Amino acid sequence: MTAFLQPSTPSAREPWSRWQRVLALVLTLAGPAAFAQATWVQTPYQNPKALVDIYLDHPGKMGAALYWVRSLVNPLIEPPYSMLPEDMHVIVLLHGTELVTVAKKNAARYEDVVQRMRYYASQGVKFKVCGLALNDFGYRLEDMQDFIEVTPSAMAELVHWQNQGYGLITPVVTDKKLSTDEIR
Description:
Blueprint: H1 2-5, H2 18-30, E1 49-54, H3 62-77, E2 89-94, H4 111-122, E3 126-130, H5 131-136, E4 148-151, H6 154-163, E5 167-169, H7 180-183
Parallel strand pairs: 1-2, 1-5, 2-3, 3-4
Helix pairs in contact: 3-4
């Protein structure tokens, strides 16, 4: 009985300790999953037809909304896809407070956003503004940047392009309360 109460010690006949056996069992049961990682998938993207519907409650959020355009366009113009602007059909429709960012009189205030939109326009992205919203804000055609097209109605435009087979992307831009490092 006293041998039973004594702590076990490895002997010459027992090459593995109890902890080594437990660890081996755990690793065996966990199997490859313990060492698994994510898999990169190279989706065979085709020429996109996308309508990005932007309606923001504050023009200061336009920079964040443009990251949605970046996430669509940049991977497609870079290898391995290397699509040309004429291969992509991307429309960005503005009809909220963000339309003030494309008014010429606000160019200095929204310089970074306008430069980014101008870059994407050079990559074939079309930027359109709702004519009803344009009037609501008291703007005229000549008040808009030269890469802007004004349409009669954002709602009619949304229906039109979806009927043409365009996929609808609606950016959600919230107030960021935590940095990426804080939640990582």
